[in-house]
Automatic annotation (TrEMBL):
The lineage of its organism: Eukaryota, Sar, Rhizaria, Endomyxa, Phytomyxea. Residues 141-242 form the Impact N-terminal domain. Pfam families: Impact_N. This is Impact N-terminal domain-containing protein. Belongs to the IMPACT family. One of its GO terms (cellular component) is cytoplasm.
Amino acid sequence: MMGDDNGSVFEQEVMVLSSIYGDEFSDLNANRYEILINYDMSLIFWPSGSSVSYTSPPLFRLELRPKRSWRSRAALHAVQERMGAMFRAGEPVIHDWVEYLRSLPSDYIEQEQGVIATANTLVSDDGAVPEIHHGATVVERKSRFVAHVARVANLEQVDRVLRQLKSDAKIAQATHNIMAYRVGGHENRDDDGEGAAGDTLLYLLQRMGITNTVVVVSRWFGGVKLGPDRFRIIAKVAKDLLDALNWQSSSAPLT
């Protein structure tokens, strides 16, 4: 049990959670926090009047990504009831909640398949290939990851960027070239064989509020399976490049 010598149990657990979950942990301000559970869901939590000392559980909301829904209302209620039953007065509980949510069967949340898009008029252009920016190579257990991003005005430019990247023999030979874009009211992704990784990139663009952008992460498999860590790495190399280009929380307008 955590003591109260250096702040409330809630405050101490928040510090521990920030250390454990790193980039998956976000401070939303106003004493609200978010932890990414997976590419479908995040947990948003905040203290109730008495939860700073954990005489009652923190308040929480399970936030689903766009185009996601619970399999049924009964499934959601079962999850909420289980989370409530896990609470013990005076004991931190959020880490246990996160690990429980990550253990849920994938069929608890339903996903719409196929292209995510809205009708919109495409913009014509002069046929030029937009400038493509490349990130640093990140090596994780022998696999190599590199992010590429470009500003785009329409779907034609998205296609040109992808063709330009594939014209590079090294990139073309990558095990996976995972892609997502948001432009002109359209958004889409491609896993390129790395199941659900395209969703990870699309979710990143949505969370950062970035449009007029296509992002690709190339992965060269090194022979060691990374499991769920691969999604974290894919998102991180893309976010690091977007941050370096100062595209965070912007629409990345064309200049």
